[in-house]
Every structure is written in structure tokens, then in C-alpha cells.
């Protein structure tokens, strides 16, 4: 009888230990678990996001917090899977640069249901209340800088203007275009520029403020989807379709550096193009070399070191139960999202050295033709 009781006692103890261990394991994989901050970035196929990955990792060096970074590779389904993976690892904060701002809503809503604080990074997540903060460059100011550069470098009147934009699924593409249109439209209306490649934009040339649907109609004609190959194909199609009076000295609104280089290669190889001014964005190494070589005119430098620092600083504030600093807000269609904004800088051949080399962003040895 005693042996039976002893066996029952050991059995009960073993069962209790199993429950205790299960509870501990559940607690360690839940809030306060192994991963403090989960980060989801849109793709590894653009240098910008690979650079961000390294800087995010470095931002937590020496701290008590940990991070895991996953890439969605241009797929909203993969993005949702990534968020679910990070939720299962017990993250307290989710930083996400969405592939598709509207489609990401379902992913962040799942995170919010678990009590996770959501920070939209660089791209706004739209049509959901499940976004706590937004860390961004002033996207409208990016477009304004691009448009103003084209104006400052335009000579005479009737300058053919080629418009290109980012992906319609990216809210930033609308903000960039909004900023560019704001400054370019008066110069289109007065005849300084003549729109060469968008009938939708031509029809709206006398309208200073466009609705979202009107911008969407223009973007539908000139989107590159952030894809250099698509940008190249569109540029080739446009140059084939236009008459000779839409060539000569031209102005090109290109949304970012990858598309700018592709578009510049097409325009630069057309013998009927005597000169072109083309904008860019992100200060990618390849585009800085293009600028030094005279093949790209400018880029809008968005110092991702500052943006990463702002995002991770905000995450640490949240982990330490502090209220993050914000500088404004953005209407995402469902709520006003508190935002921390970072300034942008125009870079051309004249200030590559001071803005990018002297600041330590790049090394001089990475380029040729620096003065």
C-alpha cells in the first residue's frame, strides 16, 4: 500500500512539474519573451531595406532588448505570415514597413489583439485603427523637393515633362506625387512644362489640388511599381510614342533612385534627347555614382540612420513604459496616427562630398569622380 501511495505521490509531483514547466514556457514565448521588437521589411531586393536591416540590428547592440527582422519579398501574404511568426515569439513592439499599406491592416490588427504596440515604418498603414505610431520622412516634402529641382533647372517654356510614380499600393507614392504636383502644377499651367506622357495629368493640369482618385488615375498611367524593369519599359514606350517636339531638353520626375537610373539609361540612349534633368530618392550608392558621372541629376537624401534611430528609440520608450515623442499626425483613412517626422536633403553633384562623405554616410573610396 505504501509503495502504491509513493508511486501516486511521485506521479502527482511529475504532473505538477509538467504544468509548471508548460506555464513557464508559455510565459517565455508570450509577452516579455525572447524577442522584444519584431521588424517586418518589404523586400531584400532593394539596397535601401538591406541597409535598414543592418542598422536596426546595430541599434540594439549593447541593450537588454532583442529583435528579429523578417522580409516580405513583395507579398502581402508573406507579410501576414511574418507578423504571425513574430507574434508567436512574444514581441512587445512591431515595427512594420508594409508592402501594401491597406493590405497590411489585417496583419497589424492581429498584433493589436495581442496587446502589441504597432509602429508603421516609412510607409503608412491605411484604413485601420490598429496603428499606434508612424515614423517617417516628410513624404510630401520629398515630392516638393523633386518638383522644385525640375523647376529650378528648367530653361524657357514648353519643356517636355515626363511623370513617373511609385506603386499605387504604397501610400507614400501618393504623398510623393502630391508634393511634386503641388509645386509643378503652376508651372504646367503657365506653359513652362508640357506633360508628355500622361493624358490624365494633362486633363488635370489646371487643378492645383488633386483628389486621391484623381492622383490614382495619373498613377495608373505612370506607375513604375518601384520596379526598374517596369520603369525602363514605360520610358521606352513613352519615347517611342511621342513626337520629336516632346524630345530635345526634357524634365523627368522619377520617384526613386532605382527607377531614376533605369529611366536615365533609356533617355540617355535616345539621340533625339539633347539633355535631361531627372530626379531620384534614397541616395543609393549606384545613383550617387550616376550623379557624379552626369547620368542622374539629383537624389533626395533620406538619412535612414536617423529614421532607424527614431523608430528604435520609440520602441525602447514603449518597452520602458514611456510616451514616445511625436511631431505631427497623419490621417490613414480610419484614424489620425501620431507621427515622428525626419527632414530630407537634396543632393546633387555639388554637395555629394559634404552631405554624404563628410557626414560618414558613405566612404569616398566607394566612388570615382569626387572632387
TrEMBL record:
Keyword Signal: yes
Primary localization: other
Compartments reported by the entry: Cell envelope
UniProt xrefs under Pfam families: Peripla_BP_4
Residues annotated as signal peptide: 1-22
Source domain of life: Bacteria
Classification via InterPro entries: Bact_Solute-Bind_Prot2, Peripla_BP_I, SBP_2_dom
SUPFAM superfamilies according to UniProt: Periplasmic binding protein-like I
Swiss-Prot/TrEMBL keywords: Signal
Segments forming domain Periplasmic binding protein: 37-322
Keyword Signal: yes
Name assigned to this protein: Sugar-binding protein
Provenance organism: Ornithinibacillus xuwenensis
High-level lineage: Bacteria, Bacillati, Bacillota, Bacilli, Bacillales
